[in-house]
Amino acid sequence: MSTLNGKNIVLGITGGIAAYKSADLTRRLIEAGADVRVVMTTAATEFVTAMTFQALSGHPVFFDNNDDAEASGMKHIELARWADAIIVAPASANTIAKLAHGRADNLLTTLCLASEAVKCFAPAMNRVMWDDLSTQSNCKRLTDKNWFQFGPASGSQACGEIGEGRMLEVSDLLSSLEHCFKSGELQGLNLVITAGPTYEAIDPVRFIGNRSSGRMGYAIADAAREAGANVTLISGPSHLSPPEVKRFVAVESADEMQQAVMSSIKNCHIYISTAAVSDYRVADVARQKIKKTEDGLTLKLTKNDDIISVVANQQVRPYVVGFAAETENVAENARQKLLRKKLDMIVANDVSESSADEPDIGFNSDYNALHVFWSSKGQLEGEQQFELARKSLLARKLITLIANRYRDNTQHAKDTA
Ligand code: PMT
Hints:
Mean pLDDT: 93
Strand order of the largest sheet: 13-12-9-14-17-18-19-20
Shape: elongated
Number of helices: 14
Low-confidence stretches: none
Helix content: 25-40%
Structural class: alpha/beta
Number of strands: 20
Strand content: 15-25%
Bound molecules: ligand PMT
Distance between the termini: 41 Å
């Protein structure tokens, strides 16, 4: 399956004859399973029509002063947050210069400046413009800012000259973009990830559950797989379709989750516990549906094992990452959990009510904001904050952080052995 499957891609089109190839790129991105939004500069609309891209992408095209696209519900900041990747293809010398210098004088350049997505550009211009020292230094500035540069290719140009500056062919652009999501940071490592809620039965029809949708855990599993890990995903009940991981285990209760975790943990390098596991289960589950005969009903609850603590207390243990969903004293509660449960890392997320002008975060939302703490030898060692973003983007950032911390830990263990 393409790494672009399920990804949100913004295709930025600037003024250049190669813009006609972007129509095919739109189609191929959609065939690969991506959701595409097109942003055009004014110059681009002189080469190709917005209508073409609206028809191919199935969504209004964004360009300067276009009320249609804004009326479709996405303002440029939302679009910046929505994107997993922005690819500017073709990227003209003028737009490359603006992007390199952080200019934000049109919708596309503003969007690029405001987005934390993966960013790529495919230069397309006359060979003399391409060879110009300022173009070369602008491209270098962009790659220094972690932009991916695709091409250009050499060959005959629309102006009749022959040389470097042609936009890459669509198939090459597609495979280069796919490659951006394969970091290899966890190549060959075994990860066990838990996700979703657990359901604790009360009787054959009722249960005690929680608001977890599985989104955060599934996004992490997907990012870990893309980073080259062998992922076992153990999930409580979720309406989502599972990502294409090596092994997927569906469970219902905390007890089932614990059994699945313990039978998967041997040879596991990193354990990530995103699941919202029920702390209690019903002591005596009724065999038949409980009838509404009394005015009140008292349920006796028994404490479940804390699965992550069981994992962390093993003699040979993986690198253990917990999550903490908190509604108050978020950072402090998370720090305490990190040390009390003997974890290597904890990811705090604030699940209190969001303000009216921010999207909901935490449970059952596509968005989150994370505050990560990690420890060394039982002491708090570091922290990093990830601002509000889509869970898919946060998952990739988190996987990079986990991979770095895991490498440092194993290196330190080797040095002191
Ligand atoms: O699924 P989503 O809708 O995307 O929502 C994501 C999320 C909010 C559920 C997720 O980001 C999150 O915060 N998960 C942890 C929620 C939680 O239950 O935290 P906790 O503070 O109760 O537990 C702390 C840690 O111990 C967690 O890693 C939890 O998995 C683990 N735990 C808890 C109880 C238990 N019996 N066993 C455990 O292993």
